[in-house]
DNA sequence: CACTTATATAATAGTATAATTATATTAGTT
DNA sequence: AACTAATATAATTATACTATTATATAAGTG
């Protein structure tokens, strides 16, 4: 086995995790699944910026997505290296602001209930 | 307490840890104290680059230094956040090449023994 | 089908990070 | 004191990252 390759892959993953915005996203995801629109509401960033952060975390295997209609929900991957799990555990729990798409507590669009 | 500040400080620390070269340095330091000259030998990088990486890790509180004559030895700080300890534990053990300044196994310059 | 909403992608500009070369500092040696 | 070796700092360049604006896609609705 190649040690340098291990270190490089750890570096790649830690660089993804180490960004302030992405850490905050991970902190929110500790509480469960969240839709993209919630991040757009919660962060003082443009929607494309949010989308690109989520893409990077998805590509790194940190999060998984679930699509429901136009909405996309992300959740933490439950198979993460222990050192990543430890980082996420160390993150503070953040206050939840409820987004329209979660107002029902059902995590699905209201329209689908009509 | 301010959650954003916690996240920001975690981000700052993870950015320091997440660099490939610095991760490799931390992997070497798992085996114990090392002098700067060893890093200069072991890495395919200029001496100033090594020095700057060590400075950042020192400033972040990841490592401690001990000066002995012209030589400077660094070791892991033994009081690190658990999530950092976990990262270091996950690093592979790297082969040790012995440097002149460690040839005695005493970690001190030969000249001081004269 | 035109319109709206949610999300993603592309192009680009701004900022941060790490590398190099050059130079300074500090300790030890002759 | 001059010389060498080890390390640090400064200045600069190159590269990588993140944010923005503009645009595309895809689903849902009237």
Automatic annotation (TrEMBL), chains A, B:
Short name of one Pfam family: HTH_5
Record-annotated HTH arsR-type domain positions: 2-99
Domain of life: Bacteria
Signal peptide range: none
Keyword Metal-binding belongs to the record: no
Family matches, as PANTHER family: ARSENICAL RESISTANCE OPERON REPRESSOR (PTHR33154:SF18), TRANSCRIPTIONAL REGULATOR, ARSR FAMILY (PTHR33154)
Name of the molecule in the record: ArsR family transcriptional regulator
